[in-house]
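Fold this sequence, please.
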Amino acid sequence: MLLDKSKVKVILFCLLSLLFGKQLNSKDLNFKGLLHNWYSYTNEGTGFNIRRVRLKAYGKLDEKISWYAQYRWDKQIASLLDAAISYKFNQYLSLKVGQFVAPGSKYGALTSASKLTFVERAMVVKKWGGYNGYSSYRSVGLQAAGKFNNLRYSTMLSNNSANALYNPGITQDNYSDSEHLRFSTRLEYAFDNVQVGVYLSTPIQEDKLGRSYGADLIYNNNSMKIGLGVIQGYNDNFDSSDNEYSGLLAHLADLVGKIEPLLRYDMYNPSTDNLAEAPVKIYHNITGGINYYYSENMKIQVNYMQREEEMRSNLDKLDNNLFYVNLQYTFDSQL
């Protein structure tokens, strides 16, 4: 039986990682993996799904240079997720080039999928990622980052579409279908068990479309987790001058032994009067659930999300509450 393209890509990724690793000492080649198995139920239907598969190879060339590459298989589609090389001058400055998570919301991919308190990220965070043109919160570019005592910073110059890397060629004299460069930055201050961050993402042009900013706060004492976040920005998907969106989230979780009860409220406001683009005026989501940490490598998550939409005009309310279960398995090995 012939292998499909997705399987061939995964096999090639593994082989290339091993081949590259032969040039390193064995202690410098490492692999991480993640698997998310879902069961979900709504009034529209029920079923099982493999939500995420991650395979990450990483290592060091020397004390200053490190690298990593991560492949994914999401929703039956395989693709390269991350590929980056970093050079660390000192604690104050390191440079990273490639495709990786852009500076932004801590509730985006700056918190990895394996560390998510809830099965899925809040709605406004997903919208923020899409409106900024990120793919899985990632972009291609160059980042400078560092730490000054309790203050961390990261600043990235990037283009979300890699088209500009291929055009113009030797037979072309102009760019085709390329995007504007994007500037994104995050400042984060940590003390005791508290972490406070602010961030900005904007195209390098006069137009404000696609610009966003926000702030987040996290308290984590290894037992109790409290999180707050606000996001505001401009959505360039709407053909309207009224295209500013906003949202917020707040969550609480408390680990007792291996059991972690949790609760989250999140709100998303499209802020547009275009009924065709946004039939819902404001989204309100309340999610409750339990995490069970079966072992160091396995976690079971059960979430129930109650959705309340403030509809525009005389549209009927949606009946779309969601119950879902996630079985997570992770591994970290060394060759």
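Residues 3 and 9 are 10 Å apart (CA to CA). The chain is about 10% helix and 55% strand.
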